Amino acid sequence: MKIPVLARAACALAAGLLAPANFATETSPTPKPVASTPAELTAGDFFRPPAMKVAWLNPGGTHLAMMVAEEKTDSTGLRVLDLTTRRATGLRGTETHDTYSFRWVGDEKIVFNVIRDKRYATGLFVAHRDRLSDPKTINLHDAVEVLGSPRARPDHLFVWIRSNARDEGRQGGLHELDLRREFRSAFGSEFSNSVGQIRPPPKIGVITWLRDRAGEVRYAIALVKGTPHLFQLLAQNEWKRLALDLEQFHPLAVESDPATLLVARRTPRGLWELVRLNTVDGTTGPVLHTDEKYDFRHAHVHFSGDESEVIGLTYAQHAPGQIWWREKDAALQQTIDQALPG
User: Beta-carbon neighbour count of residue 244 at 10 Å?
Assistant: First the structure.
């Protein structure tokens, strides 16, 4: 009887029904615009968190979800803006609880993490975009990373137990969940809606997983005796360690062909260049991009809408910067920059 009670308690916590210190639901109009050039900057202006931390459109482009700063409680809340009605609904952060991350699953569902005291995992929840105050519990207390959904199964979700609260913080496997199924449990490896599990190679610690353009898990970067190695998933829980020096090659993304990686390759001068790497024979293609000043090993690779074409990179230069190879994307970026000066 304990599991259902705790699951209901976690949902109540996320909905703000346990105590005023927990999340509270919010419905509000679009915020009023503020002056673009303040008369004077104070010390608080430099240390104040950004008003909006992360924003993502749903696949249909009808709703914008965002993490927002709650100044009164020094916390982070979650809002969903209907782009047609301009009405925002969501959850407000409090002195003790924050939204840590979120992800769209299809057009209508949002998965989000809640943390306590800026440090401790409270739970992973899923809710309809219009009813964030009525979530279902996916997991309690484990440090969980959401990888995303496979394109062929949009109602499924890959989640990784980075640190298991009931196993002395050890890593757990990567689960594929069917969000259409009933949730009966909220504990670690006991997902009632799990339809499969990808176990990492034995006796190693995974650093990150790599998925292809269809959203399927293909690779893992993991530590072996303190040294990172690249492993390829050949079949269900069957792994192959690749002879790739990760000091010289840093994987950024998997192409449509799972055997092809986009990697940052170190040059003899110590710079980095973007190339395609064939993991079957180890050959590389022509240089796609290089930067004489900035290290882009941790760049985010942008693909076209159908995932078939590499169109750009985003990485930290003197400020976050974008590189676009198609004229229409560069023109769109210019329009955005002009609309948001500074």
Answer: 20
